[in-house]
Structure formats: structure tokens, C-alpha cells
Design a protein that fits this description.
2 copies of one chain form a homodimer. By secondary structure, the first copy, chain A, is an alpha/beta fold. Chain A is built from 15 helices and 28 strands. The longest helix of chain A has 21 residues.
């Protein structure tokens, strides 16, 4: 078969190739994520033929604006260049790269080499002068006069002055700016940055069931009861109050206490079995109160420094209005009956999944999108999305982008406990934050490997981890077995490893640790199926520790970062050491945790002193949790932790310890 | 700034996402390379929502044909799938991936789980039957009858028969084939394979200067003299005879012996200073003979089992006809003079580089392309391209594709000794083979790291290394210092590490090792600037070793592969051990080299027995070079090599050694 001969390019004189750009997700298909003030460091391979010097600019702008801002890129090694820019506005950004042959720099380098070798450079200097005069013709007055002065110098000044001009960095900078940029190569893609508000990057979440908010045991809690509990939650220093679904609960197939098949009269059912004659996803369950109550809760929460996050679960009870209004939105069997949810051999008789393969999918997508819009109008800015991995990716990509465009500040937390690539993909297609495997990572190796992956590119470019100690579905074996120290350790880890973290309370602070049965991660007498009454003022509560650590988080911006996380080696497997630093580098926190809830553990830590900003032999660290101050020396230092006393140290690195020479009387 | 809301996709029900496909070079921008009979193993991440099973097909075809061939992909771990196909024709191939929801497999898996759990599956079986009948409607007769029989079985046979049908792999395969493939996802790209002829993948090259081909000392050698030397070259077992440029050499700025600035009368000049009044790149230097002589050499070489490779160097002497015919193809200084080539402070007064930024670049490109076409018409099928990294990438990409389309079987060797990413990029844009850093890789660590990189993806997908012991520009320190053993070691390494390798002779086999000066890699009295006379029949020649190793290469297809290269650990840094296997796996060669040219070295090798195809305790290896046979046992075996005797072992792995039970009399 004869092969077709190729066409020549329209312009065959573009000699610079830009490739292997980072960050770039899936060939630029998805945006990276930032919050205002964060930097985007861009690197690229810049390849060209021959010995010429390339000119490389990083271009960036707020999406939708016309003009690009330019940052000169700097060569690293092996044909790799870099530059960075700050995302100062809460808007989407774009960036790309522009390169061309830097004739002036090429000439400058070669001429300097000839000067060094003692060669005659008269003809060379005239070439440079010509370049300068050409550039001056298109430059504004101030630059033009500088360029012409240099040209004049090369045309006939003393050799010393000429060499000085050759080495003048201002000249190089003007020439880069005012070069005609002949045959410039644009990188083939314009890459995107999604800039979210700061809460997207850091926050402490508290999950609770409104049904158990009543102060009187046995009464069904209401949204008004939740308002009364706001000082309790805010007092512990949380930022977000997250509520499971608040909608009417179906009666058909309703589950009883401890997930039994037959509900007894008075059993409230699972809040995730959404919809009844009283309404669907845009209604409030009458037993919780009214929509007005909900709005009151949202505004009262705000007054307490809390945001309300609402659970959005796209599934229906058999009594949901949609089941009759939109029968095609559900799967039907050949006999006409509707498929309930299942994971064979498990069945979920109280839930119908949604059929995204229906013919009226465009209407379905809009109806689902409208649920976000409705609750946004009621003041909700944060959505915790239930099981997003069981709905199509294309739906999410459209829905989240549509809601973001209409609802400034909307944040979406992906509750997908599934395979890693699926979790990552959901983050790429628009989820702001994501649940993680944190709950099941207990050993030093597990925690180190997992959090290195989460805190480094490419994952850190798009996936914001949210670390949960427990959820209504997850009571881990570690918490079941380890007593109070286990709860303290897991809280300390979640709140210091994660810029975003959460607890499900009051089960957590009251250290509920009994599973429904051996080998299960379900809580015994779970609030998912019944009303619980909690003694929130119990003297044994972890409330004090939680309050203190949230205080430390607010005082130390280092802890509100994720990408700065670095691990430090220890010689005891039960000791985990890691540090974080803020963008300015003036706040550095080193956390050391004893992962063993049973025994005292001690050992040596090998500190990366550069990471900690230490350049002296001796330095002080201040334990913000335990209160102690330690004078440390060099990179190897000793730590001893008793789980009955303290789960770990949260050490503020204070830098150089003062010595005799630091005091007035020394001189 | 208000954000724009996104559009819905045209079809919102495609639920499968195909991503992270390998091999894929720069987002599919460049083809991977193969030779006929080689496999292309394709992997991809296949992601979808929920618990459904995806159907995944690898599609491939010869480019230009309409129909795709389909290969079912098989799941590995972590949502990764794979399949492979063979490139059986010497043509370009295309491949891509097609996925959709495999409703039948999803149903089959879930129904089997329910059967295992003892649940009633009557309604489920009816669903499966419906699917089978739907598929049967669109299937050819034989498949349709099988599908209908299964449907009937699910509609009412005995449970045992139904379970048997559920487990029937033929049914699954028919359903995959005849599924309606609703809402299928095509991978967004069609990826390409460039399939070259076998010589692209493996060959032994011999470089020589025709000017030194005369038998009588002092006379300028001719192309006719080269014909007389063909039996000498072919007798050593080489496949390719590579000649430096054969064109008229310029007189202006001509270099004298040992690269002196002033040539003396009779000095022949550098063959790379191309062009004189006698012609340019399409002429033969009169002192070498005529174009007819050249064609005679090509055809005589072919009769000796040799191909002639010609050097293509796109640069001109000041006397090249183009300098007057196309003045705009050269760089001019402000004073109107033409820039000679330079690498400040070094100057090349006998060479003008070509100005690819000229306005008439389309004509220039065609003129350069025509040089390849001209020599192809004279019978040349292999081109060694001089310094391609000093000409624009876009030119090469067009030129090589254009020549390949017009000239079946054309092979291009890239002579770019430059930075690694540039070398790799030249391979991506169309060069068939590439020179490497082999000449300067001497230690075990250097050789292991470098050849692991070259023999593994992604590099091995597009870069075919050519290993040269020496070139007219490169007489390495190792050869200068190590005496005869050094030449033997480097030859053994080149010819067994590299499927493609070359030597520059007779300097190599006659072990020329004197540099022009201390610290230089230039040969003293280099043929680049003068005629040399060689005693090719010298008893001290390495010819015997070369002949034997080329014989071994021809007898052992393992050595003609590159990607199969695997290193085996040794406990002595001077011992390098590596193996190769052919595609069938029935030819396995283990090479062990003593990298120390001075001392006897011994040590233990830790063999990867699986890689060697060994599954027994004891096995035999036969040294094809030294002749010895060794009975080896287990993975650790002892080796001792004296550089004065033998540079290494080339061991054919013979597999299981026979034991008592293998003989008739044992039973």
C-alpha cells in the first residue's frame, strides 16, 4: 500500500519545541486546583536544534481575560525550565508557555566566549548593535534609549565598556521583553487552574445526626435542637457542621434498629432512604422541622463561625415522588417491577438506585443539579456527596461545573470509598475534596507511603484529602481495640496529617467503640437506624484534647497546608514524625506520634534540618500540646511518649536557641 | 466575573472512561516502532461508575484499511487491562480501544453470587434469557442458535444445567462479540506504529574511508578499491558497510593533516566539507571515482550480503554550488560575508552551516529531501545522518516521513551525540536508529543504568540504540589505555549488548589507540584529514574475534533483540552479566564480561533463573566464545575471566542437565 507523503507545516521555522509540561493532568483535560495566594510552579522540557539559547516565558491569566501576564522561565538541568505564578484571585486561571530563539542571548554568550579567548570581536559587536537597534525601534521610550545606548557602545566604545555592556542583565531583560519574537512556538495547550476559596484547602469537620440532638432522652431531635448545640460544636473549634440527609424518609422497606429487615413502629429509618409522600430531595423531614428551621440553623451556624455541610445522596426510597412522576428514572425488571439497590448477595430494599441510562437523561441531570441549586439558595455552601462513584463521571463533570458556575464558593466533598483510580478520577472531574483511606492506615509504613502519595504531585495537584477518624459506617478495629489512647492517637493524626479532617460525633469524642458484631465496622445501636441520646458533658469526653488541637491548628498556618507534609525517619516503628510549613516558611510544626495505644515508646528521630529551617547546631522546640520545651541539638534527637499521658508532641520549631553571644552583656 | 455554564455532552450515557494508555508517546503525537512479527502489548486504565463489568477491546489495523481487528482485553489489577497484537506486515499500524458496559457479564457474575448464597434467581435468569435472545437476533446463525439454546435453558431447565450455562466461557465470548455495544466509549486517540524492515532492529555495521582503500600505500583509494575489500568486510560477518561522504571536497579553508589550519598541496581535506566546482551532495568526488563506480559498489556489496550506508551531512564547503545558486540558504553577517560554522571559540572555516530560517525554506527542505531520494535511486537504502540535532525538528519530521513514503525500506541512523532529551526526540520524529553514549559507559553501574533505560519502555518503544566501539571522532580513553583486552571487551559489549552496533575500521580491528594529543579523543593521523594505509592482514588483528562473534550473533536470534536485555547481579564490580532471549524464548544467551582489561577477575553471579528459562536445579551452559561447557546449579554460580585470554563468556543456556532418570536404563 503506497503511503501518503506528509504536508509541510505552514511555518517551518519554529525551531523550539515545548513538551513534558508539569503540572498537566491527562494532557490538560482536567484543571489543577489551588486556593488564592497559592503558587503554581510550572516546568517544561524546552528542546531546540543546535546551540542557540531559547527564550522561554510562562504565560498566565484569569480565564476569560484577554491579556497574558509573562514570567521569564529559568533553566534547571537537562533542558528543563521552570517559573511560577501566584493565583491571587478566587477565579479560574489559565497558563501556557511561549518560546522562541533568543538571538540576543545566543550572540551575547558566543561573543563573551570569543572575548575570553582573546579573539577579535569587532564584527560580532556590530551584529549585536544591529539587534539592539532593531529592538529599540519597537520598544517604549525608556527601554529604547537604553538599547540604543548599548548599540552605540558596541559600535565604538572602549573594550572595557563593551564587556560591561555584554554582562549587563538589564539589557538582557529589556531584549527579552522587546524582542520581535520571530517564529515563536506556543505550547499546544492552554492549561487550567481551578481556584477555590480557602475553606476548600483546610477545615475541621464535625458530623452529627439531628435526630439525636434533643437534650431529653427518647425525643426525636430537631433542627432547632441542633441550633442549641452549635456552641458545643463551635466551642471545640470546628469549622464545618456536616448533617446527614434531612429529607423525608420512606416507609417502604424501612430498616429497623441495627439494620434489621423489619422496622418496628416508631423506628425512624435510615436518612439515606430519601423521599416520602412529604417530599423528596428538596424537602425537610417533618420530624426534624421545617425549611425555615433549616435556614435558621444555617444562619445561626454562620454566626457561630460554622458552615453547614449537607449530605447529597442521589438515590430514592420507594416512596419518593419521582418514582411515580419519573418512572423511567429507575431500573425495571422484565416483569415491570423496579430494581432495588443490591450488591449481591446483599440487598437494600429501602433504596432504589437511579437509572442514568434512561432516555430522559438530560432532564434527570437537570433535576439532580437543581437539588444543589435549591440548597445553595437556602444558604448551604458545602455539599458532602454520597457515593459519587456509583453515578456516571460525565454527569458529575457537567453537574459540578454547572453548579460552580452558578454558585460561587460551592464546595463538594466526594464520599467515594472505592478503588484508588476511581477516587482520583472523581477529584479530577470536579470534586473539591475527597474522603481517603486514612481510617484504615495504622502503621508507620502505611501512613508514610499513603500520605507521601497524597501530598506529592501529581495527586496533590487535584486531590484534596479529607481525613476522617470515623464515620457512621466506619468504626475501625483500631478504635474498637485501643481504648482512649487509640481515639487520641487517631484524632491527633487526622488533625495534623490532614489540612482537612473530620470526626463523627458525639460517637467519637465520647469514644463509642462497640461494633454491632465481631468483625463488623458498624456501630452497635447505630444512629443510622435509631435515635441516640448523648451525654455530651461527660467528664471522660475527648472534648478538651479536640479543643486544644483545633486551637493549635488555627494558630499555626503550617497545619492548614497539605502539600508541605514531609516525613522524618525514626528508629522505632511506632514513632511517626512529620513536619509541615506555611508558604512563608516562618511557621513550622513537627508532629511526633506514638502509634502504639498500649505501650510507652521511645526512640531517635532523624530530622531533616533544612526542611525544618534549622541552620544552627542547637535549637528549641515547643510542645504546643504537652507544653514542654526541649533544647535539641543536630539532626538526631530523642523522644519518649506514653500513650496514657499524651498521644504525641506537636512541636513548634522555634529555631536557633540563644547562646551566650546573643545577650548584651556578652560584648 | 460570571463563569460560563458548561454544555451537556451529546450522549450522556457513555459510562466507561479509557485513560493512561501505554504505549503512547507524547499523547499519541509520535508513533511507536516495531519490525514485522513483533508484538505490541497495550495497557489501559478502564474506569466506570458503580459495580458493572466493562467490556474492553483492543482494536488494531494496518493504517489506511477500514476494518479494525478486535482483541478482547484482560483485567490485570487496579482497573488496568491489557491485550496484544502482532505487527505481521511491514506497514504502519494503528491501534485504539473500545469499551462499554458488559451487561451480560455483570448479570452472570451477580447471578452466580446469588446462586452461591442460595437465593431465588428465577427472575434473574429471565433477565439473562432476555439479553441472550436480544443478542441472538443480531448474530449469525451458529452463534444465534447457541445463544437461543442458553436462553431456553435459563427460561426453564434444571438448576444444574442453568449453573453450567452460567459458567460457560463460550457463551461469554459470543455475547462479547454480538453485544449491541450500547453507549460504547472510543478511546479519544488512534495511536500509531511504524513498522520498519528487520535490518532496522538488528545489524552489524562497519565504517571505513574509501580514501584509504587502496592496496598500494600512498595512492588515493577509490570506490573500485572498496569493491575489492568487500570480501574482507563481509568475511568478518558485517551486515552494513558505512561510508563517510563521497562527494567533492571544497578547497577553501581546507584542513591539513591532523586538522591543521593550512592544508598542504595533496592534502585531501575533510569529506564533511562538501561541495566544489565538481558538484555538491549529488556528486561523487572525482578522486574516488564515478557515480557508476558508486552504483557498482552498492550492487557488489549486496552480492556479498552487505548493504551500503551513506553519510548524509547537510552542510556545505564555501565552494558548494549552492553558495552561489542559493545565497539565501546561508547566514550572512551585516557586512554581507557568510558565517562559517563555529562553536566559540572553535571555528570550522571549511564549512558553512545551512540557514533554516531563510524565506525560501520550503525550497530548501525539498532540495535536502531530494538528496535522500537521489541516493535511494542509486541503490542506497540506509542513511547515516550527520549531526541531525543542528537542523530543525520540524524539518526532520517532514523530511523523514516524506522519504519513507517514497522509499520503502529506507533506514536513517541519527548521529546526534548531544543531550539525552534531544537524542530521544530525534528518534521520536522519525529516525530509525540512534547513536548512543555507549562509547563512554565503562563501569558496571554506568552500563547497567544506561542500558536498562534504553531497553525498557518508554525509550525502547521509539529509540533503537546503535552501539559504536569507536568512530573517526571518538577514540575513547578506555581504548587508548587498555591495550588489546580493552578492544576485545568493548567489541564484546557492543555486539552483545546492542542488537545494532558498529566499529570504525580498520582502526578498530588493528587496534589503533594513539590520540592526536593527551586528553584528546581524536585519532593521531586521522583519516578525516589524510589517506592512511592499513595492513589488514596483520596477524595481530582482532579480525578472528570479530568474525566469531558475528557468527554467534547470526546463529543466536536472542542477540538480535534489544528489549529482552536483562542484567543479573554479580558480587564483583568488574563482572557484568546480562541475558537476552528471542521472542519464542527457545534461544537464551547469557553474556558475562570482565570489564577490567588489566586483571583476572572472578566472582559469583546471581542468576534470575526464570529469565533464563531454567526450572531445574542443575543446567548446562555452553560458552560459544571460549568453547567450554559448564554444569551450573541453582542461581549462584562462579565465573573467572582472564582479560589476556578471553574478554568474557557468551553462554548459550542449554536448560536442564540430564540426570540418571533421563536415560532408558534407569527404568
Amino acid at each position: 500500500m503506497a503511503k501518503r507523503t506528509p504536508h509541510k507545516p505552514e511555518e517551518g521555522r519554529r525551531r523550539v519545541l515545548i513538551t513534558n509540561v508539569t503540572p498537566e493532568l491527562d494532557g490538560g483535560r482536567y484543571p489543577i486546583k489551588r486556593t488564592p495566594g497559592e503558587a503554581v510552579r510550572v516546568e517544561a522540557d524546552v528542546l531546540l536544534d543546535g546551540r542557540d539559547v531559547p527564550a522561554c516565558l510562562l504565560l498566565h491569566r484569569v480565564a476569560g481575560r484577554k491579556a497574558w501576564r509573562e514570567v521569564p522561565m529559568i533553566p534547571l538541568v537537562n533542558d528543563r525550565w521552570f517559573a511560577q505564578f501566584l493565583t491571587d484571585e478566587e477565579a479560574d486561571y489559565e497558563y501556557t508557555i511561549l518560546c522562541w530563539i533568543n538571538r540576543f542571548e545566543t550572540w551575547r554568550r558566543d561573543t563573551l566566549k570569543k572575548v575570553d579567548a582573546g579573539l577579535d570581536v569587532k564584527a560580532d559587536l556590530l551584529e549585536g548593535a544591529l539587534q539592539l537597534r532593531q529592538a529599540a525601534a519597537g520598544a517604549p521610550a525608556k527601554a529604547a534609549s537604553r538599547l540604543r545606548a548599548a548599540a552605540k557602545c558596541f559600535e565604538g566604545s572602549a573594550p572595557e565598556a563593551q564587556v560591561e555592556s555584554l554582562n549587563d542583565p538589564v539589557l538582557s531583560s529589556f531584549m527579552l521583553q522587546h524582542d520581535e519574537r520571530r517564529f515563536a512556538s506556543h505550547y499546544s495547550k492552554v492549561l487550567r487552574v481551578q481556584v477555590d476559596r480557602p475553606r476548600a484547602a483546610a477545615g475541621a469537620w464535625y458530623e452529627m445526626f439531628p435526630r439525636s440532638a434533643a437534650l431529653e432522652p427518647g425525643r426525636h431531635g430537631t433542627l432547632r435542637d441542633c441550633i442549641r448545640l452549635l456552641p458545643y460544636v463551635a466551642g471545640m473549634g470546628f469549622d464545618v457542621l456536616y448533617l446527614p440527609p434531612v429529607h423525608p424518609i420512606g416507609g417502604t422497606g424501612r430498616k429497623g434498629k441495627n439494620n434489621t429487615l423489619a422496622a418496628r413502629p416508631g423506628d425512624p429509618g435510615s436518612p439515606w432512604a430519601i423521599g416520602s409522600a412529604e417530599g423528596g430531595h428538596q424537602a425537610v423531614a417533618p420530624e426534624l422541622g421545617t425549611l425555615d428551621d433549616f435556614c435558621a440553623l444555617v444562619s445561626q451556624a454562620n454566626r457561630n463561625g460554622l458552615e453547614v455541610a449537607l449530605d447529597i445522596a442521589f438515590q430514592c426510597s420507594p416512596n419518593h415522588p419521582w418514582v411515580t412522576e419519573h418512572p423511567d428514572w429507575f431500573y425495571r425488571r422484565p416483569d415491570g417491577s423496579i430494581h432495588h439497590a443490591e450488591n449481591p448477595p446483599k440487598k437494600y430494599e429501602d433504596i432504589y438506585p437511579i437509572n442514568f441510562e434512561c432516555d430522559s437523561w438530560p432532564q434527570l441531570w437537570e433535576a439532580l443539579r437543581d437539588i444543589f441549586l435549591f440548597w445553595y439558595r437556602q444558604g448551604v455552601r458545602i455539599f458532602r456527596v454520597d457515593n459519587p462513584h456509583t453515578k456516571p463521571f460525565d454527569f458529575w463533570e457537567w453537574c459540578l461545573a454547572d453548579v460552580r458556575a452558578r454558585c460561587p464558593g460551592a464546595i463538594f466533598l466526594s464520599e467515594a470509598f472505592t478503588r484508588p483510580k476511581i477516587m482520583y478520577h472523581l477529584a479530577k472531574i470536579g470534586f473539591t475534596q475527597s474522603y481517603t483511606y486514612f481510617a484504615w492506615r495504622n502503621t508507620r509504613w502505611e501512613l508514610t507511603e499513603y500520605f507521601k502519595e497524597l501530598s506529592s504531585p501529581p495527586v496533590s495537584e487535584f486531590f484534596r484529602p479529607s481525613l476522617w477518624t470515623n464515620t457512621p459506617d466506619i468504626l475501625t478495629e483500631y478504635l474498637q481495640a485501643g481504648g482512649r489512647p487509640a481515639f487520641a492517637v487517631r484524632f491527633l493524626l487526622a488533625s495534623t496529617l490532614g489540612a482537612n479532617y473530620g470526626i463523627y460525633g458525639p460517637a467519637f469524642e465520647l469514644m463509642q467503640n462497640r461494633p454491632r458484631e465481631h468483625g463488623s465496622e458498624e456501630y452497635l445501636d447505630s444512629e443510622k437506624y435509631e435515635i441516640r441520646s448523648w451525654d455530651r458533658e461527660s467528664p471522660g469526653s475527648l472534648r478538651g484534647l479536640i479543643t486544644r488541637i483545633n486551637e493549635i491548628r488555627r494558630e499555626n498556618p503550617a497545619l492548614l497546608t497539605q502539600k508541605s507534609l514531609k516525613f522524618h525517619p525514626t528508629d522505632n516503628e511506632y514513632l511517626l514524625a512529620y513536619s509541615k510549613r506555611n508558604a512563608g516558611g516562618d511557621n513550622i510544626i513537627l508532629t511526633v506520634v506514638n502509634l502504639d495505644p498500649h505501650y510507652r515508646q521511645s526512640g531517635w528521630i532523624d530530622l531533616d534540618l533544612e526542611e525544618l529551617g534549622i541552620d544552627t547546631e542547637t535549637f528549641q522546640v515547643h510542645d504546643l500540646l504537652g507544653g514542654g520545651r526541649y533544647l535539641w541539638s543536630g539532626s538526631r534527637n530523642y523522644v519518649e511518649l506514653d500513650p496514657q499521658m499524651l498521644p504525641g508532641h506537636v512541636l513548634k520549631v522555634l529555631g536557633r536557641a540563644r547562646r551566650e553571644g546573643d545577650f548584651d552583656y556578652y560584648d
